């Protein structure tokens, strides 16, 4: 998989805190996403501030994100602004799932880096959620009295007091990083609202299409599989549809790369399983099997044994230090 990137505009928010090794990217248009994420973890650890990502995000000026920032922040309503932000977020950051879901009277704005090998990433999650929180607060200062927050990171002694900074109840070890709030706020007007320019939307669409075409086919397919596994809705038909291909053409293109759909699916399952078993200690093996698309726990265990040479239970104990590695 090729290296995912993030726009270097984000470095403006982190000038005071960013380690020196990232300074070299200031004059570049983008930097590796993993470099950015790991640098945030380093900065928070060095400052001894587990809440650092959230604090930095509160002062972010999203208008500095170019056309997308303007379209999102100057939309008529919060709902429209978040719609454009979700749709064009890949222009800011690769390998990322950002989604707004509305279920009756509840809205859920979620964010997740799709590459499971980019970890830990708690500060990136807090930074991004804080920026989203700014959007919400701009339409109603008291909205956070109705908000719940979820973060992927497990609860630890260091981050157990985050609620004091986020001013909202937190669910740890969540499936994604998310802000859950009443859907009624989506119709509230943004403070800098104006008529969305069709010229700007056309410009964003053109850049987005160009970026998609330039992305390696195998990377696009893998990210779609990761997304499907996260949403527990993965199938060959789903991947083909998202790529605007027939399943036959999908198989042919994968074959040309020396892969089958099953090979690719197993690769993604293997990467996710490895990370989940190391980090999600509270998730049972049966839950993990279901999350990875296996209907039977035993089928998942056999596949895992084939991948790693040990059972999932033994692998988890090794990675958490309960037993020595073999």
UniProtKB/TrEMBL annotation:
Pfam families in the cross-refs: Arabinose_bd (PF12625), HTH_18 (PF12833)
SUPFAM superfamilies for this protein: Homeodomain-like (SSF46689)
Secretion signal, residue range per the UniProt entry: none
Top-level division of the source organism's lineage: Bacteria
GO molecular function: DNA-binding transcription factor activity; transcription cis-regulatory region binding
Keyword hit for Transcription: yes
PROSITE patterns, per database record: HTH_ARAC_FAMILY_1 (PS00041), HTH_ARAC_FAMILY_2 (PS01124)
Keywords: DNA-binding, Transcription, Transcription regulation
Residue stretches making up the HTH araC/xylS-type domain: 219-318
Any one cellular-component term (Gene Ontology): cytosol
The protein, known as: HTH araC/xylS-type domain-containing protein
The organism of origin for this protein: Brumicola pallidula DSM 14239 = ACAM 615
């Amino acid at each position: 998989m090729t290296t995912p990137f993030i726009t270097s505009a984000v470095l403006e928010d982190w000038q005071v805190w960013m380690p020196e090794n990232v300074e070299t990217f200031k004059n570049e248009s983008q930097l590796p996403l993993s470099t950015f994420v790991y640098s945030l973890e380093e900065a928070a650890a060095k400052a001894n501030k587990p809440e650092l990502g959230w604090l930095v995000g509160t002062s972010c000026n999203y208008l500095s994100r170019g056309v997308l920032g303007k379209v999102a922040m100057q939309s008529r309503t919060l709902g429209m602004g978040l719609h454009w932000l979700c749709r064009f977020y890949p222009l800011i950051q690769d390998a990322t799932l950002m989604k707004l879901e509305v279920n009756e009277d509840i809205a859920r704005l979620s964010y997740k880096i799709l590459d499971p090998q980019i970890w830990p990433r708690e500060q990136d999650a807090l930074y991004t959620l804080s920026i989203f929180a700014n959007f919400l607060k701009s339409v109603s200062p008291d909205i956070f009295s109705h908000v719940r927050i979820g973060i992927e990171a497990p609860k630890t002694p260091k981050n157990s007091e985050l609620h004091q900074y986020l001013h909202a109840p937190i669910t740890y070890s969540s499936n994604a990083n998310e802000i859950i709030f009443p859907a009624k706020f989506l119709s509230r007007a943004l403070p800098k609202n104006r008529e969305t320019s069709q010229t700007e939307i056309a410009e964003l669409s053109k850049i987005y299409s160009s970026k998609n075409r330039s992305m390696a086919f195998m990377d696009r397919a893998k990210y779609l599989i990761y997304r499907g596994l996260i949403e527990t809705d993965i199938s060959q038909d789903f991947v083909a549809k998202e790529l605007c291909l027939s399943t036959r053409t999908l198989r042919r293109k994968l074959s040309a790369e020396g892969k089958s759909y099953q090979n690719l699916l197993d690769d993604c399952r293997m990467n996710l399983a490895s990370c989940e078993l190391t980090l999600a200690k509270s998730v049972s093996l049966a839950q993990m099997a279901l999350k990875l698309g296996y209907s039977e726990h035993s089928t998942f265990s056999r596949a895992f044994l084939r991948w790693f040479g040990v059972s999932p239970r033994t692998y988890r104990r090794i990675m958490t230090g309960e037993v020595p590695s073999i």
